[in-house]
Amino acid sequence: MENKNLLEILDEYFLSTKEAIEYLGVSRQCFFSLVSRGKINKIKKGSVVLYYRHEIENRKLDAFALRRKYNYSD
């Protein structure tokens, strides 16, 4: 496999810390609180930390649904 294909696969299934924080639209402190409480799982290999894209996407959908349910403003 080419490096390009491997990077595309990584992009499809994983997010970096920065990408996850930006996608969720939360502060670093809030994000790391979610990780430390086990609400978001991380994968660590050496100095690289990645997060499952599907977990981050589901977390955002859940937050959106809760805001609608309880009428919180966006």
Explain what the structure shows.
It comes from Listeria newyorkensis. This is Helix-turn-helix domain-containing protein. Residues 14-57 form the Helix-turn-helix domain. 61% of the residues lie in helices and 15% in strands. With 74 residues, it is α+β, with helices and mostly antiparallel strands. The longest helix is centred in the last third of the chain and has 17 residues, at 53-69. A three-stranded antiparallel β-sheet has the order 1-3-2. The mean pLDDT is 89. The chain has four helices and three strands; from the N terminus they run H-E-H-H-E-E-H. A hairpin with a 2-residue loop joins strand 2 and strand 3. The protein has one domain (3-69): Arc Repressor Mutant, subunit A (Orthogonal Bundle). It is globular and about 50 Å long. The relative contact order is 0.15.
Topology readout:
Layout (H helix, E strand, L loop, with lengths): L2 H11 E2 L1 H8 L3 H9 L5 E4 L2 E5 H17 L5
Antiparallel strand pairs: 1-3, 2-3
Protein name: Helix-turn-helix domain-containing protein
Pfam families: HTH_17
Organism: Listeria newyorkensis
